[in-house]
Amino acid sequence: MTNSEESINYNLLKNRFRGYLPVIIDVETAGFNAKTDALLEIAAITVKMDESGWLLPDQKCHFHIQPFEGANINPDSLKFNGIDIDNPLRGAISENIAISELFKMVRQAQKQAECQRAIIVAHNATFDQSFLMAAADRVQAKRNPFHPFGMFDTATLSGFMFGQTVLVKACQAANIPFDHRQAHSALYDTERTAELFCYMVNHLKHLGGFPHIVAK
Questions:
Q1: Residue 113: how many other CB atoms lie within 10 Å
Q2: How far apart are CA 16 and CA 8, in angstroms?
Q3: Catalytic site residue from 64, 123, 180, 184
Q4: Is 184 a catalytic residue?
Q5: 67 with 40: CB under 8 angstroms?
Q6: How would residue 77 be classed by pLDDT, with cut points 50, 70 and 90?
Q7: Which sign does the torsion angle of CA 34, 35, 38, 42 carry?
Q8: How far apart are CA 102 and CA 100, in angstroms?
Q9: Strands 117-122 and 146-153, how do they pair?
């Protein structure tokens, strides 16, 4: 290890991911096309580090979202995720409000951690990122805190670590409880994905894999 590496405090979040703040995201949608299909639900959880450098879930937000004007609604998708878009108890809000509030939370966490930018963490992350970025474009969101194409995919990471790419099976491998009845709720899936991501990062640290020192 070089002298410059020794001077870096890896117990600070800003130094763990090259200045990026990981933010765990999950979406529920009315289809697979981010440009044409409605975004119906989104949840996000930021992370923090304790004094010893262990990664923990932190702040969270969760919104049910009204389909944007002209959005395509695929009945098969609604059957899969169980969302009744006409139910007033959903408390759905506009994309504009949801994206604005989510970005506000992320920017505050980013500033507090002294990170330069946020990066999306999600299970099969390309899907979630595409819907978030499409919604941000539709509402012409200002100061989007997320990297435009970079992401951490927990499906890939858990495949590498556990040999499992399905969220529930990866959680089981990490001894994280998973209730099938609550699956496909954006908030529940985000909470489990956040636990899984933190577990994998912390397990690597425990094994001495980051930074490059032998665990004592």
A1: 23
A2: 10
A3: 184
A4: yes
A5: yes
A6: very high
A7: positive
A8: 6
A9: parallel
